[in-house]
Amino acid sequence: MQSTERQPSPYRRGLIIVATLATAYVASHFARASNVTIGLDLMRELNIGPEALGALTGAFFFGFAAMQIPCGFLFDHYGPRRTVTGMLILATIGGIIFVLAPTWPILLSGRALMGAGFGAMLIGTMLVITRWFPPDRFSTLSGMVLSIGLLGNLIATTPLAWASQAYGWRAAFGALVVFIALAAIAIWMIVRDAPPGHPFLERTPEPPRQMLQGLLEVLRNRRLWPILVLNFCSYACTFTVQGLWGGPYLREVHGLSPIQAGNVLLAAVIAYQMGMLAFGPLDRILDTRKWIAVGGNLAVVSLLAVMALAPQPPVWVPIGAILGIGFLSAASTMVLTHGRGIFPDRLIGRGMSTMNTAVMLGVACMQTLSGVILGAYEPLASGARSETAYRALFCVLTVVLLTAIAIYSRSQDVKPSDEMRARAKSA
Fold it and tell me: What pLDDT, on a 0 to 100 scale, did the predictor assign at position 427?
């Protein structure tokens, strides 16, 4: 009877730990998505073009991607608690530089440091979920974490548009810096790497040479490579619309005001949150991860194709497409869940960090490329980008994502039922 009464306690504690990490994750989403709202303001204040704005946005993801492999080593050696806390201190420093930056190069440096500091958040949270909960709950809880994190995207739309008009974007980011610092303190005080008795707590930390051999083992896993291709392209293509050019497109091509464009992006983030909650449990219901990812990404391709091919559509068409892409973007998390299933626990930190490297490096490259594509077209007399320039960008996104899906379709599925049978055998 005593053991039955004690069983819920680790579960509840795990939920508190995951909720703490998810709340901190809000800051990461706010920082990465903010340029879609303040991008035109930055261009005017700093006198920069779309290429520089694309590079500025991409800098966050280059910094993020650069820290994934190092954080994988740190996760497996020191655990998520110490790693995430330390990296959030780095994000705080980057945020301070960003707020005070007088020129574009310094602004770029601060944004890159913020990206590097937030590089530990998602994978650290997923490692905690892996160790505190059974594998068939991973997708659902990961979806909940990402849904909570997307509150940052919500704040980066209409609320940020309002705050930047009322107080300036620097004041808004000053509040973000305070939030990051408080989040680091909360994680240090509340988060624990694993429940009592978990093998991770009894492990002998691997020496550096053995850790490097583990990374090579991850990279030699042929089942990983098709997954990495879609990881590289899926979020990169959707976030280029949702997190950078969707707002400017609605303002420059369809004449929406900053607040109106912010409202559309706000609704798209809500749709994304709904998608996270909808896609999260689907792998347990349908007993597949691969085909959920394929179906969701193919639907995104169809919406990108509409934006690329429809000349001068009524405004409700791109608005509907942006909202649909927001909901279907949640399919990208199923790719990460798929990849997690191919690694043993001793390699989970390095394995998931490798996958997230592909995600963030893909976003960084696509953000930078998107600025180059738009910058290749002559601006209108008003200085705005033309509809033709934006349609060319959407066409590139369509082709890239469709190619990635074709490659990923050759991967081997990892079904939740197979994982549960393996867990039962090892118990």
Answer: 55
